[in-house]
Specification:
Largest sheet: 7 strands, parallel
Distance between the termini: 7 Å
Number of strands: 21
CATH architecture of one domain: 3-Layer(aba) Sandwich
CATH topology of one domain: Rossmann fold
Bound molecules: adenosine-5'-diphosphate, magnesium ion
CATH class of one domain: Alpha Beta
Oligomer: single chain
Radius of gyration: 31 Å
CATH superfamily of one domain: P-loop containing nucleotide triphosphate hydrolases
Structural class: alpha/beta
Length: 693
Amino acid sequence: MRPEVLFSLFKPVTSLTGIGPRTGKLIERLVGPNLVNLFWHLPSGVIDRRYAPSVADARPGVIATMTLEVGKHKKPPNKRLPYKVYCSDGTGTLVLVFFHAHEDYLKKALPEGKTRVISGKVEVFGKEIQITHPDHIGTVDELDELRKVEPVYPLTAGLTLKMLGKAVAAALEEVPALDEWADPAFVGRQGWRPWLEALLEAHAPDGEEALDPSMPARARLAYDELFANQLALALVRRNMRRLRGRVISGDGRLRNKVVAVLPFQLTASQETALGEIAADMADEARMLRLLHGDVGSGKTVVALLAMLNAIESGGQAVMMAPTEILARQHLATIEPLANAAGVTAALLTGREKGKSRKAILVGLESGDTKIVIGTHALFQDDVAYNNLALAVIDEQHRFGVHQRLSLAGKGRAVDVMVMTATPIPRTLMLTAYGDMDVSRLLDKPAGHLPVDTRVLPIERIGEVTTALARSVAGGARAFWVCPLVAESEALDVAPAEDRHAALKARFGDRVSLVHGRMKEREKDAAMAAFVGGDIDILVATTVIEVGVDVPEASVMVVEHAERFGLAQLHQLRGRIGRGDKPATCLLLYAQPLTETARARLKILRQTDDGFQIAEEDLRLRGAGELLGSRQSGLPEFHLADLSVHSDLLAAARDHATLVLERDPELESKCGQAIRTLLYLFERDAAVRNLRSG
Ligand code: ADP
Ligand code: MG
């Protein structure tokens, strides 16, 4: 249960005075529902109101806070002209300008003959020095309050800085002081102050420099977030480990049969990974291993051999893919190989219904079906396994950590292997998987040819189409990728449909289309036609990004490549160059290119190494964006920026390990403080892994 000291922080933002349901909704959409979410919304800028010149000295274009005597009000002759109030300070006259003014209000706020403090941007208009719509009008008493640096927060449409600033300030009033959870010696060495002070300081930057994520206040908050993340992962993992696994150690009879029919030799990396996996499975503790390999590195066959190991010792194995297309594709790869060893494989997705679903469930329950491949339909309540021993999760960055764990509950002590092709930099890997065991497929299978990547302005699309026609005439198959344009799927699909129509006009029926809004059946049909060679050009949105395997495809055109992330482009490009033909990737961009977009495209032209690309991506974009909403399985940090704070991550991880060694159930005084930290960052699930959680 959440500790009482935190209760006030988990109140809805609408509980703040002055925040009604409408503003509350906007705030909720921007930061989250509770007061605590406002804490993590740090200023992105400042407005410096400390400049206090006399009117004669005031520099145009600069925000100034001036003490002035209010003079005449001048009402405009018609509504299109502004209302003016003349003020002075003895050195000159400053005109306050208001459009669509409410006279009553202005008369009250700016009474003639009184002294007022005015803050806003100074402008020169003709001969007049003026401030249009001052940001603040106050009395002399309020001067100190106004002459300061104001934080500027990221906003959303409909929410003003004033409203949000007020909400944050009010939320901060509710903050309790909390016991220190970090290692005091470490905090001392870093020159950090306690959490509460750091939080308040981060929300009260005294200048632009204070916004730097490496400044002590921000670094401290980032560390706390990372520490909570690392503790949570360590706790979950420890619990998985505590659960006894079982000894799975096949005799190799099925694996040998499959290896004998493979048309290639396993790479050294594949052999190593298989050795590590076999050792884990043979161990009493439960396996929790990540198989990390770049696109095309050959993870599927490693997974199949691991599954056969489970089957050799009498168990069953499942493989879960994030999409139906992928599940089908895995089945297509795996089934013939499994059959060669006399093993039956089945498919279970949301689409298997009625009788056919029933038949699959019977096979799984009886144990006749040894391998089942599917989507999360595999883990619905009524799916029962005879003897599930191994679960393989493919491309798991699409799944949440929770799914990953819930799946392990389907059998007795199921070993879990997660496969990912997302080239995650080491630093991020640590945040997403903690110290999960990792096998890496570093060498690419023999025969893999680097893709010839070219970057062209979109104006040259005519040439591209001509070149495409030549390739297709020579027997090549091509992906033509259109970008997502907006959040709305309807809008996203339109450009792909247009491109499809345009290419159809030129290439006729040998062009097809696949996008996320199509029915699964239609998607499959389009994919199948492409795989089977009935069509030459497949226009697609990023639905093909993950894992789609068509070795015959050797050309890829990416339209508006500047709109894609680096990792995404790398994933896309990984769809080609899988066969024996040299492959070409044409990245078409529209001007103007931002510096970052230019750098991204350059990296892609230079390297094919997913890890190098991932590191560059992190450097260029910062982790926040890299872990954007599309990759929902990876944690999103509010305060930590891994392109800056990776040292803190390492420290957080070390400290988390140490703490759990010394105080495994977090029962000491410091342990209690750490529990509070976990709740503060909403890692409640992790606390439940404690004996008295
Ligand atoms: P990914 O790691 O992206 O899932 P896949 O498992 O789909 O990669 O493998 C990519 C291609 O490489 C497949 O066509 C597969 O048959 C082939 N492949 C896998 N291992 C080897 C190997 N050792 N030698 C040659 N080709 C291989
Ligand atoms: Mg794959």
